[in-house]
Amino acid sequence: MLLQRESQVLVREFNRRLRAALRHAPNYMRVEAGLEVESHVIDVLGCRTSALPEPEQVAEILRGFGSPEEYATAIMSQLPAVARASVGSGVREVSMAAEDLARGTGHVLAAAARNGFHLVATVAGRLWQGACWVWRFLDRLGERLRGPAAETRAWLRTELRAGGRAAGWALASTGRAARWVLASTGRLGRGAWPVLTAGVRLLGRVLRWTLRAALTAALGLLALAAFGVAAFAAWAPDVAGWWVAMLNAVVAQQLADLREHTVAGFDPATQTAFSRVGVAVVGGALVAGLLFSALVAFLVWNGRRRRGSVAG
Known about the structure:
Layout: H1 5-21, H2 27-47, H3 54-65, H4 68-78, H5 87-235, H6 237-262, H7 268-311
């Protein structure tokens, strides 16, 4: 059974305080106590049928334990003296862990050495058998191919000579054709270059005037839209205010849903840290925007200055 987010927060907070109160108990006792609390909550929720929301039921079940400190006191009172955390018990746990680690390391090394030697011997044997088989196969193949190889060598020598003569004729013909194509292309390029240059300039002017017209039209539409909104707000200010209020409500609801699915599961201290990071991101984005705007303004000013200096 998977608990809801608010229920998980309640259980984690209870277990955090419980572990803090059980600081004098061994570590495994703290882990078992937390698991027992969570298991009890899930079992009780699975057995009961209540119309209350799940977080309220979880809070009621946790109140049955009392406060985490009281529950920790009850657990510590039932532990024997040897189970309490002390220097002696800590030394015993460390020594047992070291003994288990040493024993396990010895088993691992012995198994690795035994299996590694067997693997190396097996691989070496297989490689030797494969090398012997390849050597015998190549020896028999060389004996069988000695006669046909001599005949094939003579045939290849004759064919290569004939192919060399054909390739020389083909290269000479290709060179003559390439020279003719280059000469024709040069004459065509010298005639078409002015036309191509004029077309590119005309296309640049058309694009520049098109962009200017589009920008002017966009700014005009924005101005008309702003005047239209102002006129409607002057004609019906209550309706305009209602629209703004509904927009604010929708935005607030969307932000609330977003916070519920992102940062609602964290504690207030972590949420405050997130807010500080967000404010830093806002400042960094504003600084980056200002830098980019200044760069664009500098590029525009520099371009105009260069055009003015060329015209002068």
